[in-house]
Amino acid sequence: MASLAATFGRGAMTNHWIDMINTDVAMVMGSNMVENHPIASKWLMRAKERGAVIINVDPRYTRTSSFADIYCKLRSGTDIAFVNGIINYALQNGLINKDYVLNYTNASFLISEKYSFHDGLFSGYDPGKRAYDKTNWAYDLDGTGNAKRDLTLQHPRCVYQLMKKHFERYDIDTVCKITGSPRAIYEKVCRTFTSTWAPNRVATWLYAMGTTQHTHGTQNIRTYAILQLLMGNVGLAGGGINAMRGESNVQGSTDMALLFHLLPGYLASPTKAEQSLEEYKTHFTPKTNDPKSANWWSNYPKYIVSLLKAWYGDKATSENDFCFNYIPKRSADYSHISLFETMYEGKLKGLFLFGQNPVVGGPNSNKERSALEKLDWMVAVDIFETDTSVFWKRPGVNPADIQTEVFLLPACSSVEKEGSVSNSGRWAQWRYKAVEPVGESASDLWIIDALHKSIKKEYATSGVFPEPIVNLNWNYGNGEEIYPHREPDVHMVAKEINGYFLEDKVVNDKQFKKGDQVPSFAFLQNDGSTCSGNWLYCNAYPGPEKENNNMARRIKEDAINGIGLYPQWAWAWPVNRRIIYNRASCDITGKPFDPKRWVVRWNETTGKWEGDVPDGPWPPADKYPFIMKPDGHAWLFAANLNDGPLPEHYEPLESPVDNFMSSQQNNPAIKLWHKVNPEGNAIGDVKKFPIIGTTYRVSEHWQAGAMSRNIPWLAELVPDVFVELGTDLAKQKNIENGNRVVIETARGSMEAYALVTRRFEPFQLNGSVVHEVGIIWHFGYNGLARGDSANLLTSHIGDANTMIPEYKAFLCDVYKKNGGVA
Amino acid sequence: MKISRRGFLGAAGASTLGGAITLIGLPKTAKAASVPEIKTVETTESTTICPYCGVGCGLIVSTREGKVINIEGDPDHPINEGSLCSKGMALFQVAVNERRLQKVKYRAPGSSEWEEKSWDWTLSEIAKRVKKTRDATFLKKEDDKIVNRTNGIACMGGASLDNEECYLLSKFARSVGITYLEHQARI
User: Fold this and answer.
1) ipTM score of the complex?
2) Backbone phi, psi, residue B94, to 5°
3) What's the topology of domain A1-118+177-246+580-649?
């Protein structure tokens, strides 16, 4: 999501599931949505029935491929080359929506003379730090502090010309040598996709983990975003960049900031550099000198102060910086891989797990499983006994050697509690409690409440820096004591997330009383008179009664534009906007580019926008549409990413071939864990491991398997782990369908059943032939259906911006076990 | 423990539901009239959202005498319009499944077995562990700058929790001083 935030200002799916029906061309790349989001793919099928063309790009011919009009294969890890080639095709042939590009993107902005690109490196690279000095890529500013612009797009240092130069190296022949795609099909993909540059044609881009799980995952998405901006497809119905989320509330858990670098609502978590609230506000509140830029993040101070008031209540005052220094400060990267590397070193003593099963889902399972043995204690909260919670009796270890104490707490299921979940399209939907929790299980809400109260008791009389715990504003209607089944009031929590007034106050000529719910984030204050646990959800619960809970709405009526927004069904962030950046669906006079399926339009008579909730109420000419970017424009050229302002092809860390584009084999800005911490982080040699490995999911299982491998119906459908390999490779290796085989990498090995199919074909790459195999990754050693974990094979290496592991491309070998007797 | 599908349904006391599933599979000429009767008689219905992927399909949960007796797609839901995938169809077996954890389990250092424990004991023991680790690893300052963080405790997970739970977890973890705070979105 780092890529989307860098480009558009928000890291979220731009459109929503039903909206797929509105598209002309759907590109499914980095996703097997028919298998992994099956019900959503119904909307894609309906688009197809209405004449849309579906393109699917994938190393393997998947269930999604079988639904597609055009299937084009590519080698895992070569998305950037593939899409950069389409971008080049568009630029060379003038197939762009020029109005859109000129007015809504930074194409016309001039870049500093210090910017350059040579042999795979952008200017400002420090090889010792493996990092760039990004100031080399800054805008060339005029006297007022705004970027200089050339509206003719001719200046050699304007973004448009820099892009033409950067992307022209990606001609069709070069691309196909890298990706192994068939030339004729690739050309057809270029032609079909770029047909949507026309204002009355639109394409949607659908992706998932196949895109993100690479050492250049962020830049993979950047290529999609750049292409969609050149086509003018962002903000339109049937358009956008749609990151398809794989868990029921992974959108909401991200919104609520269960990530080291964030606070709720995508505020930054403070670093050591922010010693006071003032420093925090200064560092993170963007500025603009352009009166036409809404620069919505200029509201940062209101959102952080309202958050601190939600967390520390009366204790948070302007005199004490609203308890800003109660929030822990980071001074390093604490993401998943770093976390487990630190645990492996014995520096982490305690671990809480809430419904996560990292011994199956995390990369480099052997290392992560060993790391758990270094813990003093683990608290695992789950509805089933997970593989991780029994790591101390996993195959191959003696429990007597493992000193970790484990507390396994029984959580209840989603039908035994009440609350909301946010789907991929940002719809927060309410769930009701149907029955009481089974046995002594309890909701996570009750468990978290009980943990806080128990720890607070421990700190009542003594302890190190107890203030953040004992002063925490925590009152959800069930008293100070802990009783079984006496739940915190989930509505009180939801109302705190939304936010309420803490004193009588007049805002925008409206009188509010102390205790009133804040109607929307435009009313939040920076003086401590409002609280809001997450400003993005301000408007989800704007009144005191249960009837005011917008997330529980079930009115199935479409909006006046008839494009399937269903604005009164549940609630979407922000402020019930169903398609974000929707002002960009209109030209600069407010007329929709495509009147047939308009999203918003400016009504001259009323002086208001109509249709979807617009990105701000201003008349079209008054403000630029990308209000979350400080300059109001979407960034074709993004100077804020760690690995370059424009996407460049590098090979995965483990690759069978040399980088055809430059002497930089891998992304120059990734952290090389095998060099920092060599133990358990071996990297494979292509001579020993000549085959590309990748991992994927099946419809019948879910993630790390706790909620599918313990379900008899699902365990019966897919009872064991398999590896899919092509017929040519199988012949070479003397492997037959159903044989028991071993897959091995430099980190570990696993066994699986061989599934020999034509769905994987060898890749012809610049004279060499390379094979690829794929393994389903849901399996582990515990549960009803058991099998080896595919992550025994993967490595601790992450993306340069997000540290998302490179699960999707590694080097392996495959051979028959014991002569192939199953 | 191995459970066959039939054995599981019997064990859960849902043999009438087993019959219902069989009937759904029959052609329309079968005694269709008896099917809705089994599902609707004396049940209470409530809506829910699927806990698996991020599509957010709607479902209807039917309960009788405090027990879930059926879960099916919600035909009024605008996204799924009543349809469900293999996992959504199996939500019933998340709710009714003898493999579900029903008591706190505790594993002592070096032990090869779980022991069942009470909530009271568990919460107070966890609180002691948290305090001990937090107090031993808390870092107030680094390079003379305030950091106020707990270096020795990590917290993971949350993508299957409700928003309200995620929010409280985020708030709780920060109050303890945890910066090793991660979940499924990273991987």
Assistant:
1) 0.98
2) -80, -40
3) Dimethylsulfoxide Reductase; domain 2 (3.40.228)
